[in-house]
Design goal:
Blueprint (H helix, E strand, L loop, with lengths): L1 H33 L8 H10 L12 E5 L4 E16 L2 E5 L5 E5 L2 E16 L1 E13 L4 E13 L2 E9 L20 H6 L3 E12 L2 E8 L17 E8 L22 E14 L33 E17 L2 E17 L7 E16 L3 E11 L7 E9 L7 E11 L16 E11 L1
Antiparallel strand pairs: 1-2, 2-5, 2-19, 3-4, 5-6, 6-7, 7-8, 8-9, 9-10, 10-11, 11-12, 12-13, 13-14, 14-15, 15-16, 16-17, 17-18, 18-19
Length: 446
């Protein structure tokens, strides 16, 4: 029986080999006649891509590397990284707040792989349906977040989006990062702007060279606040801008004229936002709200911020900004003025003020002294505040682009700051700081 089974298996194997030998050439010839498998039709995707990158907001990825591109979807991976040295001097300082209280200043002198962002982007089933998964990591604070957005590009005139997005209170929140003078914002803008949180937005191109965005956000800033901390209030913001002369303002509308415009490129815009903000913690606990600061650098939800032993539980934030910029033959200028109002305080005791108004501006100018390679710039900002502290800064720096492209640069940034109203582990500033800030860094966007 065993021998019979063995012979049967041998005959079966022989028949299979013979059949494959006869059939394989026919299959190969049939494939040759049909040609290679058809590639996915990318004409529709390419047409949409022409306006896609205008409307991705703050978390716009780099060009990246295509991993998958098929008839049912695509996957691209891109990356941003920043290594930076910062030294804030003098090392020992004290901040006197608007109530005359002394507050120690924790100055910085550190080397850090500061920020990492990795994007997974693409479309799924319909080239108009786009996804963006973002991994954001700040080594300075050991924070790592995974978030994203989804967008439906109905047309160039109207795109719908949901996900984590900016409050549209200043131009830099709307896609120009990381093409700035340096790797973080200027003092005046950082102090007055809104932040980022889960949102629904509509954006598009109204007509040639004119654009708009409107957004409803969960709050002015979601960072560090869980859903359990949140209240029932929302944040509302909108922005319009135009490119009246050339219909564009360079990659991402960013700072600097690395592209060397032969004709004057201009940009003008207006942004506004409002939000009913809370402290996102019980009245007897430390506030989790850190986006808004008073002009002395104190958090308004801190107990005693506006009056001894009094705690603000809620307030209304309102801001409006006007921005302008120009680029021509290696020269560039950008500036923005912002008006901010804090009002309708809900506190557990009497306050000396019912409204706090702060307003200010920042300006940046740059010249590519070596076209495509080296740019020298000057920056400054000034804040007119309720407490008559009048914070200001001035400084400058240089950007060197080793390959003549924006993807990789070396940056030298030097500032003199007087009574900084803002500060965090993200940017250049510490609240109340007066002195010189020196920074040397390199960043890459792929």
């Amino acid at each position: 029986m065993t021998k019979r089974l063995l012979r049967a298996h041998m005959w079966t194997a022989t028949l299979l080999v013979t059949s494959l030998t006869l059939l394989l050439p026919a299959a190969v010839h049939a494939q040759d006649d049909a040609g290679p498998p058809p590639l996915p039709d990318t004409s529709k995707t390419a047409k949409i891509d022409k306006y896609d990158n205008l409307f991705q907001g703050q978390f716009t990825p780099g060009s990246g590397f295509d991993i998958i591109r098929s008839e049912i979807g695509s996957l691209n991976i891109s990356f941003y990284g920043l290594f930076r040295y910062i030294n804030q001097t003098p090392a020992v300082q004290t901040n006197i707040d608007h109530l005359g209280r002394a507050r120690p200043i924790d100055t910085r002198n550190d080397l850090n792989w500061h920020r990492t962002m990795v994007w997974l982007t693409g479309w799924f089933y319909d080239p108009k349906f786009r996804y963006n998964i973002t991994c954001w990591s700040l080594a300075s604070t050991e924070q790592t977040l995974l978030f994203g957005n989804m967008r439906y590009l109905m047309s160039e005139r109207m795109t719908f989006g949901v996900g984590v997005g900016p409050n549209l209170t200043s131009r830099s929140l709307q896609g120009s990062w990381p093409y700035w003078a340096a790797s973080d914002r200027q003092m005046g803008e950082e102090f007055l702007r809104g932040g980022f949180s889960s949102a629904f937005w509509i954006t598009g191109k109204a007509r040639r060279g004119m654009y708009y965005t409107a957004s409803v956000n969960r709050s002015i800033s979601q960072l560090g606040n869980t859903t359990a901390d949140d209240n029932r209030d929302m944040a509302y913001s909108a922005s319009v801008w135009a490119h009246p002369t050339t219909g564009e303002f360079g990659p991402r509308g960013g700072f600097g004229d690395l592209e060397h415009h032969k004709h004057l490129a201009t940009q003008f815009g207006m942004s506004a936002g409002t939000s009913r903000e809370g402290r996102y913690a019980p009245i007897d606990q430390t506030s989790k709200a850190t986006q808004i600061r008073l002009s002395d650098g104190v958090l308004p939800f801190e107990t005693g911020a506006l009056a001894e032993s009094v705690t603000v539980n809620k307030l209304t934030y309102r801001a409006v900004s006007f921005d302008a910029g120009a680029k021509y033959k290696g020269f560039s200028f950008q500036g923005e003025y912002t008006y901010r109002e804090l009002s309708h305080f809900d506190a557990n005791g009497p306050l000396p003020l019912s409204t706090i108004i702060d307003h200010g501006f920042f300006a940046e100018a740059m010249h590519m002294v070596v076209p495509k390679k080296l740019g020298i710039y000057a920056v400054g900002s000034y804040v007119f505040d309720e407490f008559d502290r009048q914070p200001f800064e001035y400084g400058g720096g240089a950007n060197f682009y080793p390959y003549g492209r924006r993807n990789w640069r070396l940056n030298l940034h030097v500032l003199h700051v007087d009574r900084s109203p803002t500060g965090s582990s993200f940017g250049y500033y510490t609240p109340g700081l007066t002195g010189t800030i020196f920074s040397l860094g390199t960043d890459v966007l792929l």
